[in-house]
Write a structure and sequence with these properties.
Largest sheet: 8 strands, mixed
Distance between the termini: 77 Å
Catalytic activity: ATP + H2O = ADP + phosphate + H(+)
EC number: 3.6.4.13
Enzyme class: hydrolase
Shape: globular
Keywords: ATP-binding, Helicase, Hydrolase, mRNA processing, mRNA splicing, Nucleotide-binding
Organism: Symbiodinium microadriaticum (Dinoflagellate)
Number of helices: 24
Structural class: alpha/beta
Number of strands: 23
Strand content: 15-25%
Strand order of the largest sheet: 6-5-7-4-8-9-1-10
Radius of gyration: 27 Å
Mean pLDDT: 92
Bound molecules: adenosine-5'-diphosphate, magnesium ion
């Protein structure tokens, strides 16, 4: 037996924190008492017994029952960090950076330790852990990267995969990797957490079927109301429903689900305005919750509405306006009313165009139930659905695993790097379509990351070290040759950051004017570079960058994020031997060099102008029609564009595009990639490139 016999943890006797030696504060005991009432805590005896006797365990419990925050601590208390006489760490993998950060900060608070000491976290661009960290919270992506350095993950005694019911692409593939690692390391324990009972497939995936422990539910009845007819403007309907609940329903907080970040911000603005007119019914406190928010702001959703603030003799009420993240990942306490627009933003992948787009789609029936049940966690509640019941008949029963609707380039490259040569036969929980896998292999081959035999190349190894998608990685790797390392780095950091431009509803025009001040006529990538330079200049001149950002409607969070990402990427570039070379700003090749460098990474994302009048472009490989997004800073419609992403709304739009020259495609693109027979007959690029090639061979 490798583990010490687990002892049921006793509440600490002395008034002293064993981790730090410092005395516990009263808040510790206050939180402890709350923790001990959580269902996951109460199930700890059964849990430890099953952990002891199994290598893999699946644990199901409703959102908020204490899985994420309590189970790692229970394992720590029971001595699971000591394995075969060695101190190892317990790893908790979350599907998003926000959930990672939130869990790490919360547990530090509960244990009264500093972040980065005994408890810490690793996300894409941040590592707040030390050699002593016993509870390590990681994003799924971060665990992938650790596996590349340490394929058997020997630093860990237990690995917890959280939210496995979401079936994100990364979690799915991690399950496959861990399944192999466990064969080589029989002492490694794997704990899979789920907020939904739908885990049969996951259980069956493991040898002999993983046992299941269900934490007892204690939900109350929730009364459900549907709209009579579909609401065209669900945002307006949502705001109206919040107001109605606030003015007519008894005490209790509200959780409103909307699909898009912009809509959440807008709804918050509208509700704050509205709340002034509803003072007679008590103070309404509005909080937003979605992935891009700063962590401190998201933690505010957990604070109770300030009860002291009685207004007109009524207690105050909190309304949390949230994305799908609040469905299971971040369960907010005290919700009595759920208002659900019934929509979610989802990744969709089209293997033909090889592009991922985000689309707003109806939620699954399972999600609708999950959202509803959140209203009944503490007492009976109500759920207002902003859609008619009949609309749900053609909704999917549950969400399809993300791996079936994602671009697999990054995942396939990582698998190759980890030594899984035959990715087509990798033991996936649900295998993606062979077409998507073939496309990923093909793209990696074009990018020079794997050779014609499917073996990883030097470029591929370098790309694996850079925590960005392979196209950006390729751009960074090629940057020294194009003499624009520093600029490519800044652009890459900006592309990885949050949305840069703020679009406040009441200052739309001023925001657009501000944006125009930074616009580069050759394209959005260069505009982003201008913004980054201007921001850095402010700091260099000793000015307060937050003022500069506010005046120009630039998101300070995005800029700070980009700065951190840039530093991180720069360190890696230097460590893998990429030189920091730049062209002099006065040199007329300064911008062309950068644009060529963009093509070296994004040659698979080129569009060619078809109709000046309609502003229609065609994508080269499949001839699909795309338009320029109205937000672009391109002042005209260039004939050739390299772009970063597509957005799907009424039409397919190019976002973040920059003008290029067709000659560059032939010079910089991989050999044969732009041969005319590879280009769609529907695209005029075919004949244009043909002409160019023949003119060249004549010349
Ligand atoms: P689960 O993972 O099972 O969904 P959690 O462990 O995240 O549940 O949450 C347990 C309890 O702690 C819930 O009541 C939740 O609202 C609360 N909680 C979680 N994170 C925080 C936080 N950062 N601040 C305050 N309360 C929190
Ligand atoms: Mg959780």
């Amino acid at each position: 037996q490798y583990n010490q016999t687990p002892q049921p943890p006793e509440p600490p006797r002395q008034n002293q924190n064993p981790l730090t030696g410092a005395p516990y504060t009263p808040r510790f005991y206050y939180l402890l008492e709350k923790r001990q009432r959580l269902p996951a805590w109460m199930a700890r005896q059964d849990f430890l017994k099953l952990m002891q006797s199994n290598q893999v365990l699946v644990l199901v419990g409703e959102p908020g029952c204490g899985k994420t925050t309590q189970l790692p601590q229970i394992l720590l208390d029971a001595g699971y960090h000591v394995q075969m006489g060695q101190v190892r760490a317990i790893c908790c993998v979350q599907p998003s950076p926000l959930a990672t950060l939130s869990a790490s900060l919360r547990i530090c608070e509960e244990l009264e330790v500093q972040v980065g000491t005994f408890v810490g976290h690793v996300t894409r661009f941040e590592d707040r852990t030390s050699g002593d960290t016993l509870l390590r919270f990681l994003t799924d992506e971060a665990l992938f990267r650790e596996a590349m350095e340490d394929p058997l993950l020997e630093r860990y005694s237990v690995i917890i995969l959280d939210e496995v019911h979401l079936r994100t692409c990364e979690t799915d593939v991690l399950m496959g990797i861990l399944k192999m690692v466990m064969q080589r390391r029989p002492e490694l324990k794997l704990l899979l957490l789920s907020s939904s009972m739908d885990v049969k497939k996951v259980q069956a995936y493991f040898e002999g079927g993983a046992p299941l422990l269900q934490v007892p539910n204690r939900t109350f009845a929730v009364e459900v109301f549907h709209c009579q007819d579909a609401e065209k403007d669900y945002l307006k309907a949502a705001v109206r429903t919040v107001a109605q609940v606030h003015t007519t329903e008894p005490e209790g907080d509200i959780l409103l689900f909307l699909p898009l970040e912009d809509e959440i911000d807008l709804a918050c603005q509208l509700l704050r305005k509205e709340s002034v007119h509803m003072m007679n019914f008590g103070d309404l406190q509005v909080r937003a919750l979605y992935l891009g928010l700063p962590i401190m702001e998201t933690q505010r959703v957990f604070e109770p509405a300030a009860q002291m603030k009685m207004m007109a003799g009524k207690p105050s009420r909190k309304v949390v306006v949230a994305s799908a993240i609040a469905e299971t990942s971040l369960a907010v306490d005290g919700i009595t009313y759920v208002i659900d627009a019934g929509l979610v933003k989802q990744r969709a992948y089209n293997p033909r165009t090889r592009m991922e787009v985000n689309v707003v789609t109806p939620i699954s029936k399972a999600s609708a139930l999950q959202r509803t049940s959140l209203a009944g966690r503490q007492r009976p509640g109500k759920c207002f659905r902003l859609y008619p019941e009949r609309a749900t008949s053609d909704w999917p029963e549950k969400v399809y695993p993300e791996i079936m609707r994602s671009s697999l380039t990054t995942i396939v490259l990582m698998l190759k790097r980890l030594g899984f040569d035959d990715v087509v036969h990798f033991d996936f929980v649900d295998p993606p379509s062979p077409e998507a896998l073939m496309r990923a292999l093909e793209s990696l081959n074009h990018l020079g990351c794997i050779d014609d035999n499917g073996n990883i190349t030097e470029v591929g190894n370098q790309a694996c070290r850079l925590p960005v998608d392979p196209q950006i990685a390729r751009m960074l790797i090629e940057a020294p040759a194009h003499r624009c390392s520093n600029e490519a780095l800044s652009i890459a950091a900006m592309l990885c950051s949050l949305p840069v431009w703020l679009r406040p509803n009441d200052a739309f025009r001023a925001a657009n004017e501000a944006k125009a001040r930074f616009a580069h006529m050759d394209g959005d990538h260069l505009t982003l570079l201008n913004v980054f330079h201007a921001y850095k200049q402010q700091i260099q001149d000793g000015h307060d960058p937050s003022r500069f950002c506010a005046e120009n409607f630039i998101s300070i969070r995005a800029m700070r994020h980009a700065e951190i990402a840039r530093d991180h990427l720069k360190r890696i570039m230097e460590s893998i031997g990429l030189q920091m070379i730049s062209t002099d700003f006065q040199d007329k090749e300064y911008y062309p060099n950068i644009r060529r460098c963009l093509v070296s990474g994004f040659f698979m994302q080129i569009a060619c102008l078809e109709s000046e009048k309609r502003g229609a472009y065609s994508m080269l490989r499949d001839g699909q029609e795309v338009m320029l997004h109205p937000s672009t800073s391109l002042g005209h419609r260039p004939e050739w564009i390299v772009f970063h992403e597509l957005a799907l709304s009424s039409k397919l739009f190019i976002k973040t595009g920059t003008q290029i020259k067709p000659e560059w495609l032939l010079d910089i693109g991989p050999r044969g990639y732009f041969d005319s027979q590879k280009i769609s007959e529907k695209s005029s690029a075919r004949s244009k490139l043909e002409k160019l090639t023949s003119r060249r061979s004549e010349g």
